[in-house]
């Protein structure tokens, strides 16, 4: 008998549009011989399933069920592809824990912590061979911050919302005159902002997941952007960024990166597939942790999809492993 899987998408943030694109790919790729898929769209005060005829069927939040043609549909599990809040910050995970439905992504605590870039860096900073850029975490947009930042950090700087994704609200600051505008832009997206020193290095993004009793680190993708940094346009506009999978690394670098990534995954108690961004510093080759994405994109050209295909695996098989893992005894 086929399992009933809720494919959760939408969201409360600007990343909802990316989430819908990811969900469309997952929906058509998942093995329909094994699973019945029901797309559930989650927006503020509007959780619903849309039928083929366009009818909006509300979700019963008491048990996360829907009723179709008089039949109550309950779900065996959730494939979470909702980027940003509430799918990536722990809110949905906590809800699913309470109603007793397994899901493909990290638990509530890990999701909440990793959504906060500053807190994540504080947890992983002592992993051997891992480095983090010097940074300041700001909780208010006060004029005194300008002097403190210039006193404690060295230009150029990255200014970014601490809990955001898809590089929304992020700026690269090269001169002191640009700092106030960058802070205003970041604080418009979040009430916490991270300001960190720029690391000059090659940028990579790498997927890692746990299934069938083992943690698999996928081949890294090297990001070569024609923009100043890998911002929203660079991530989602064709031709702006060159993505090389597997990325150009020596054997020593690949082995070292894989060691570090596996430890990050374990230390943060991750579940399912996550994507970790990092630099290899130009002068030293040191590994600098940037951030982790616990609900990585699943569009046709997404980095995770590229990396899965690079190891000779079909994306459909990858999705099956993620789904079956949430039902395994070791979760």
Automatic annotation (TrEMBL):
Protein name per its UniProtKB record: D-alanine--D-alanine ligase
GO MF assignments: ATP binding; D-alanine-D-alanine ligase activity; metal ion binding
EC number of the protein: 6.3.2.4
Family affiliation: Belongs to the D-alanine--D-alanine ligase family.
Active site: 15, 166, 302
Free-text cofactor note: Binds 2 magnesium or manganese ions per subunit.
The keyword Cytoplasm is annotated on this UniProt entry: yes
Keyword annotations: ATP-binding, Cell shape, Cell wall biogenesis/degradation, Cytoplasm, Ligase, Magnesium, Manganese, Metal-binding, Nucleotide-binding, Peptidoglycan synthesis
Domain ATP-grasp: 117-324
GO CC annotations, alphabetized: cytoplasm
Role according to the record: Cell wall formation.
Binding site for Mg(2+) 2: 291, 293
Domain of life, source organism: Bacteria
Record PROSITE patterns: ATP_GRASP, DALA_DALA_LIGASE_1, DALA_DALA_LIGASE_2
Catalysed reactions, as listed in the record: 2 D-alanine + ATP = D-alanyl-D-alanine + ADP + phosphate + H(+)
GO biological process: cell wall organization; peptidoglycan biosynthetic process; regulation of cell shape
Cofactor: Mn(2+); Mg(2+)
Record-listed Mg(2+) 1 binding positions: 277, 291
Keyword Cytoplasm (UniProt): yes
Compartments (UniProt record): Cytoplasm
Pathway the protein contributes to: Cell wall biogenesis; peptidoglycan biosynthesis; Glycan biosynthesis
């Amino acid at each position: 008998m086929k399992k009933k899987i809720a494919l959760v998408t939408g969201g409360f943030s600007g990343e909802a549009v990316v989430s819908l694109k990811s969900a469309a790919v997952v929906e058509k790729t998942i093995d329909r011989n094994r699973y019945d898929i029901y797309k559930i769209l989650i927006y503020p005060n509007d959780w619903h399933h849309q039928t083929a005829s366009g009818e909006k069927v509300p979700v019963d939040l008491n048990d996360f069920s829907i009723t179709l043609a008089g039949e109550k549909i309950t779900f065996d599990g959730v494939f979470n592809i909702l980027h940003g809040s509430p799918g990536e910050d722990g809110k949905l995970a906590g809800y699913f824990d309470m109603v007793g439905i397994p899901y493909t992504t990290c638990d509530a605590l890990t999701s909440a912590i990793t959504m906060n870039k500053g807190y994540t860096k504080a947890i992983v900073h002592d992993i051997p061979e891992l480095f983090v850029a010097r940074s300041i975490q700001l909780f208010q947009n006060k004029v005194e911050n300008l002097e403190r930042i210039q006193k404690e950090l060295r230009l150029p700087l990255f200014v970014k919302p601490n809990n955001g994704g898809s590089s929304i609200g992020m700026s690269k600051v090269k001169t002191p005159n640009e700092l106030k505008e960058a802070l205003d832009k970041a604080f418009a997206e979040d009430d916490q902002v991270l300001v960190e020193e720029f690391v000059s290095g090659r940028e990579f993004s790498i997927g890692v997941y746990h299934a069938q009793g083992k943690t698999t680190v996928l081949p890294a993708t090297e990001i070569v952007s024609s923009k100043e940094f890998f911002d929203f346009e660079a991530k989602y506009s064709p031709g702006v960024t060159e993505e090389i999978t597997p990325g150009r690394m020596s054997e020593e670098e690949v082995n070292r990166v894989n060691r570090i990534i596996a430890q990050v995954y374990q230390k943060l108690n991750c579940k399912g597939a996550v994507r970790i961004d990092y630099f290899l510093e130009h002068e030293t080759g040191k590994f600098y942790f940037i951030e982790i994405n616990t609900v990585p994109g699943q569009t046709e050209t997404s980095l995770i999809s590229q990396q899965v295909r690079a190891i000779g695996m079909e994306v459909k098989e990858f999705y099956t492993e993620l789904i079956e893992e949430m039902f395994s005894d070791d979760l």
